[in-house]
Amino acid sequence: MADHLAALGIGSSSVEERQEQVRKILKASKPHSQRADSMTLRWQDPSGAALWIYVDQTGAMKSVQPHFSGGSRVLLELQAIVVRPELSPFDGGFLGLTQEGGSNPSLGGGFPMVFDAPDFPDVKDAFLQSKHDVELAAFAVELNVYESEDEFRGAQPDLKPLGVPAFLPAGMVAQAEGGEPTAHALMVGRVLETSLVKNQLTELDFVRIRMESPAGPLDLIVDPEMAGGLPAVGHIVQAGAWLSGRLAPEDDQK
Length: 254
Hints:
The chain is mostly beta strands. It has helices at 15-28, 120-123, 149-154, 173-176, 224-227; strands at 30-34, 38-44, 49-56, 61-68, 73-83, 92-98, 112-116, 131-146, 166-168, 184-198, 205-211, 218-222, 236-247. The protein contains 5 helices and 13 strands. The strands form 2 sheets. The protein has a 5-stranded mixed β-barrel with strand order 8-12-11-10-13. A hairpin with a 4-residue loop joins strand 2 (38-44) and strand 3 (49-56).
């Protein structure tokens, strides 16, 4: 299973090193919001790596939600709230509809997208059918890189060809089977930009790939061990990913 913290340059080879990282992160975290039974702390690194840390009245950590700040935004119309009580009261997200890039006329030109919100307790009452510029980050769970579209298609001769770019809300399979949709997607697109980013707190690197999607550019955050190097601009990326999204991140400055 992919480690979303490693995709942000948070990781260690020993228990002692991880404890030191946790200590530094907690020291650098700032209060974000307060509830009757819990508080949200937010840690933000200049690299864009971010964590929302939920603690109870005793100060014990109950949940940690990763995100990448400062990335691409997609205009989404919120369709439904997704809660995950089996995980924690702090876990949840939204089903949104893009405003472009779809092929089903009944969806008005868009396509569905499920994302988890790291600050879910603060935004879970957002009005449905309202439109938001959502700051999205896709954390790679699986990654394949091809030098050309022909190579991409040749690697999967038995599969129905996907367009380039393509976005499939794979996590909605669970909804079709009666459960809550997960925030997972299969994405295919050309590399628009790529960089190796240093987490300034841990001094560990992670990979940021800006790739095309039918609804516009998306940022794919990747553990360097999974990436195996930086893909070149124009290469085709096929990624299974978990999506994290924030509504109105500019409110952090108020």
